[in-house]
Amino acid sequence: MTLIPRNPSKLYGYHVANLRELDLAISHTGRLAKAAIASRDPQQSLRSLLRLYSFLIGAWAECRLQKLLHEEFGFSDPDRALIYSESSQLERWQSAVDLSFRKHHNVPKAALNSKTLGSVARSARRDALHDVLDKELRIIIEIRNKLAHGQWVYPLNNDATAVENDKYQAINKENFQSLQLKVSLIGHLADAIHDLVVSPATFDRDFEKHFQKLLQVRTNLASKNYSNYERQLVERRRAARLAKITTV
Question: Which residues of 6-21 are buried (b: 16+ CB within 10 A; e: fewer)?
Answer without folding.
Answer: eeeeeebeebeebbee
